Amino acid sequence: MSHDTHPARLPEELVRKALEAAGEGIAVVDGEHPDGPVAWVNPAFEAMTGFDAAELLGRNLRVLQGGDREQAALTELREALASERSCSVLLRNYRPDGAIYWNQLRIEPCRDAGGALWWIGYSRDVTAQREMEIMQGRRADELDATQRRLEQVDPIDRVTGLQSERSLEIALELAWFSCAREHRSLALFLFAPDYFHVYLETFGRVAGDSCLRMVARGVSGAFRRASDVTARLGEAQFAALGTGMERAMLEPHAMRVCERVKALAIHNPHAPFSRTVTLSAAVLLACPGRAPDWRGMLEEGRRMLAEAQASGIEQVVVGDYGSD
User: Fold this and answer.
1) Based on the domain organization, do 247 and 197 belong to the same domain?
2) Residue 313: CA count within 13 A, CB half-sphere
3) Is pLDDT at 311 greater than 90 in this prediction?
4) CA 92/CA 30 separation, integer angstroms
5) Phi and psi (nearest 5°) for 146?
6) Which of 106, 122, 149 is the last residue of a domain?
7) What is the CATH number of the domain that holds 70?
8) Which member of 14, 83, 94, 189 lies 3.0 to 4.6 Å from 240 by CB, making a disulfide possible if both were Cys?
9) What residues form DSSP beta bridges with 93?
């Protein structure tokens, strides 16, 4: 007697219940519509994103990126959608309250019996894993997810003894996502000695390094909390991070740092306006989760500092990063 070896066809209701009970977030998107509206999400997807199904149905999932639309992974995602192929990307997503999280998203194209295109997205919240990678000195290569690797970091600047520039970037990235999750403010302080190039021309490199060490001590001495980070950037810039600081305290604090350095009375006889080394500062306050990203904050701070020094000495400017 022959036996039928074909498996039984699962009832559609059973398949739906299995998808609804899955611990992984699942979303189904209409691939026939040019804007790719959401057609269905499971409860795990709602829990991960913070959006109710009713808030997502009929909308494009770009709502999950908020205003953070310049992520390299989004380009890879768009290319996969255009060529109807599966892909896996790591995205920065935002919940309705502004809290940020990392979404490991895998998409698969699927055509139904009638030939209509659907996209199925599988999502996992990998925020804890991502933050652990940052804490261990790991940085995912977001431009090419297939080539992620450990990047060895020299944490200390050998001239000043402060954190290195690369180490500061890791600390800033970690603080950014930590503050976004905990709804705390993040302050970035940038300092630079005025007319330092004149000091170098007058006294040379060895004396210049000694000057930088003295300035570094003046800066780092004003940031003593366990959560504070101070670092040297480039040739003659210094950075400090402060979390949970009120805006009203930023300018006075930056001015005190500048006064500390001025009180060192480091002779700079050929500099205009002052015969001792002075300091200028730029300070930015951000609410991570409602601002673009930490890299943009660092770039904006450097731009502000350059403009401040171009307008004179002992300049202190304060701004809000990412606010309208």
Assistant:
1) yes
2) 15
3) yes
4) 23
5) -80, -10
6) 149
7) 3.30.450.20
8) 189
9) 101
